[in-house]
Design brief:
By secondary structure, the chain is an alpha+beta fold. Helices cover 22% and strands 29% of the residues.
Length: 547
Amino acid sequence: MTSTLKKWSILSFLKPKFTSNIRMVLVYGHLGQSCLIVTKDRLVYALGINLHNCLGTGDKQSTICPKRIDALCGKNIKTFAYGRGHVLALTENGKVYSWGSNNYYQLGHCDSLVPEIVVIPENKTNFVVDIACGNDHSMVLTSNGMVYAWGMCVDGQTGSGSLCASQSYLATPNEVKLDSTFPMRFLNISCGARHSVAVTCNGQVYSWGSNSHGQLGLSSDSKVSKKALEVKHLTGIIIEKVVCGCTHTLALSNEGILYSWGDNTFGQLGVNLRSNTFSSTPLVIQSLKKVLNMAASNSTNISVALEMGHQILMWGNCLGQKITLPTLISVDSIHDAFAFYASPSGMHQPFVISDEEKEEEDDVDIEETMSIMDHLMAAFDNKDTSDLTIEVQGKPIYVHKAILKIRSEYFEGMFQGDWKENNDSVLQERNFSYAAYRAFLKFLYTGKLDVAADNSVELLQMADFFNDDHLKAICEDALIEDISTVNVAFLYSVAVQYNAMVLKKHCVKFGVRRMSDVVKSTSFSELTNETMRNFITEADEHGVFKT
């Protein structure tokens, strides 16, 4: 068992042979008394207290022995999220399952003792990439940047506006829409107990739900907001991530500055005061360097941050004490901070065990185990160390010429000899959106693509433009997972346009099986005559019209 897993009491019931096969685990519940486990062979188990049927095992019995959740086995579980008594599971191909308490239809379907799929409205290129839970409401983020919510809406936490004016719940997923002239896509979502917050791809923050403690970052005159409203105090600041505590909110900017607002009864805002605030406040602490990540959970009043030196700081309600300033603690990870100090005790998100992770017996210092990838991640968009600024839509991205040259043939050719770009410190980019370009550059640093950040079609276009086969393969895989009768013709045209042969092959194979439905779709009727003729011809070569 890894060092982090050993810190959660409920996992002490497991036998060593079983723990050695764990890939992901979530500890949740009021006292950390319930647990979900995904093994390396894609099986899913639950153990612990089965309050509100939160284990999803098909009965109401608690258990100290892992019990299989057959409905989720083999489904490639990506992550979990939990509320006061309900749980969501997200698969790698964007399907959402839910089970547990359903007093306010927070499951998105009727009561069930086992996980049932939640039907999310579909369109051409839409699948779920992230999930979040409040006390009694649920929320998802889709690949094209849309947010859907359902469940309790007494305080407007589903962002459904007038839809819940005369009722206390929203039974099925409903899109959260913005009062904006320009269409916006969301990048990140989070839920507090009774409020919701989201970040757009442009770095703007929107919030809705209860504002009883200022957790929305709106005017103190607004006790609730049933519509998503912009947090105006952050205008001009590019926010990359938000997380919600029970009644407070944290936001992290692209410059590594942490902002907080809302309930401060326990000092969870980290501003050395105990009064609530309705506007965002930056944490200005001498010992706090650039923040790389932060965490909170919908059931706690604790805040945790990982700073650039890979040190962990925590503040708020920590073991019953009210810590009003970020305080360094001797733990190895954010997960460890929640295991030791959070009350109630539960994980802020699932703990995923990488194949390379070493056992605690290795007794290797955390600084020595910091991988090259960690250093590259810290260097990305770091103004202090960069030697090149790429401006996209007026927003800067700070990078390093040497890294770009090593990772991309396109940039290797650009930064050679007497080429003008080799001597420039600022480059202007006008071909792609800021969100897509930033995701591409981050991919060059880390080798990982944040599919929640951008539309895969635009990233596929970038892969073709920059001649990056690895990026193209990732984008093609993401789009292949999303093929349906509604969008297969559209994706075929995309594959043709950007020479994505693997995607094209899968579109044709899908068309062979479902051609009668495909030809009725809007995307098929929108194809050019030449593309339509080629699609039908290729499908015919695979026997679609044979009797």
